[in-house]
């Protein structure tokens, strides 16, 4: 196992809440995707919205953007409760969807002029600068751009009106590792140097770890964790029976699992072969556990924590 996932980012002072959802629910037919989503993003934060494929990230973001309607629940943008963001709110949001639909015959520069009509705060000089920074040829037509260039173009279009918040829906899907890294560096630069609040969704743990201050992990229609990466590393740990395993090790593991549950630990994974349990509890519960047991305890990588938190619950007996 890799060492603990301390975020590489220095902690920031939290600002006011720009975006909040309360108990959002959404079903498609009999399938309930969101079962009470409570999410909050504060000014200046880079919020990584993590979930496995099909967890409901795009559905959530589309509700935030007013593209889909929630069945129940409340949504607040910039401190005001709304059913969906209105024109004024949308003018303060930069949104990059999972797929980009641009008029293929427009050049990058022309597209900027076209989109500028929707945003009173559009800054054409800044847009031209962004095209330069992202190495996008202003005179090239969209049809002749690579996938990576299109995503960067979408980001330039989302940034040129200097939005209060950027919403990115799996923006790096379909990018190669170099393009992905370049894109994340741009988002990170925007956050650090322009104070740009950002919510971005992903199922790639490594990229969330790279740039986020705060994460929300979506499981079974709800956030099973929301907070800093450092705190997450404190909550979820692995315990291991001391080696060599005695023949009664499986029984001992069973007993530990039962006791952990009684003490309020959430058992996330059990590995009988290696004599280990992955569990979640508050730090004070971990302290008392350490006091009372001889088990070897280790921190996990964010990827292992993510897998532990999002695994199907009924796989653990
Ligand atoms: N319009 C729709 N009609 C029916 N089911 C839908 C619709 N949109 C989404 N779903 C279902 O809702 C679930 C969540 O989809 P969503 O696209 O929000 O997940 P996601 O977390 O963004 O997934 P991915 O990481 O694969 O993009 C999926 O099971 C999907 O099939």
TrEMBL record:
PROSITE patterns: ABC_TRANSPORTER_1, ABC_TRANSPORTER_2. Residues 19-245 form the ABC transporter domain. It comes from the Bacteria. Pfam families: ABC_tran (PF00005). One of its GO terms (molecular function) is ATP hydrolysis activity. SUPFAM superfamilies: P-loop containing nucleoside triphosphate hydrolases. The keyword Nucleotide-binding applies. Keywords: ATP-binding, Nucleotide-binding, Transport. Signal peptide: none annotated. This is ABC transporter ATP-binding protein. It comes from Sulfidibacter corallicola.
């Amino acid at each position: 196992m890799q060492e603990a996932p301390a975020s590489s980012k220095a902690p920031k002072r939290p600002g006011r809440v720009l975006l909040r959802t309360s108990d959002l629910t959404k079903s498609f037919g009999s399938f309930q995707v969101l079962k009470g989503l409570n999410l909050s993003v504060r000014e200046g934060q880079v919020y990584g919205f993590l979930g496995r494929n099909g967890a409901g990230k795009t559905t959530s973001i589309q509700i935030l953007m007013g593209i889909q309607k929630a069945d129940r629940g409340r949504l607040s943008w910039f401190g005001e409760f709304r059913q969906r963001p209105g024109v004024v709110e949308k003018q303060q949001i930069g949104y990059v969807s999972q797929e980009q639909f641009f008029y293929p015959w427009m050049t990058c520069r022309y597209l900027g002029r076209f989109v500028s009509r929707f945003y009173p705060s559009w800054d054409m000089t800044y847009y031209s600068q962004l095209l330069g920074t992202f190495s996008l040829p202003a005179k090239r037509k969209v049809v002749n751009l690579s996938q990576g260039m299109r995503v960067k173009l979408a980001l330039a279009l989302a940034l040129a009106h200097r939005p209060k918040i950027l919403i990115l829906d799996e923006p790096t899907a379909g990018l190669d590792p170099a393009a992905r890294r370049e894109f994340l560096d741009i988002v990170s630069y925007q956050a650090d140097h322009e104070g740009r609040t950002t919510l971005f969704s992903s199922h790639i743990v490594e990229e969330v770890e790279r740039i986020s201050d705060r994460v929300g992990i979506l499981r079974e229609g709800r956030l099973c964790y929301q907070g800093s990466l450092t705190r997450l590393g404190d909550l979820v740990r692995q315990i291991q029976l001391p080696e060599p395993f005695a023949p009664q090790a499986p029984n001992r593991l069973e007993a530990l699992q039962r006791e952990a549950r009684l003490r309020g630990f959430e058992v996330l994974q059990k590995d009988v072969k290696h004599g280990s349990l992955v569990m979640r509890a508050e730090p004070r519960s971990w302290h008392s556990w350490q006091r009372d047991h001889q088990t070897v305890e280790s921190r996990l990588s964010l990827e292992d924590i993510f897998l532990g938190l999002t695994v199907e619950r009924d796989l653990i007996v």
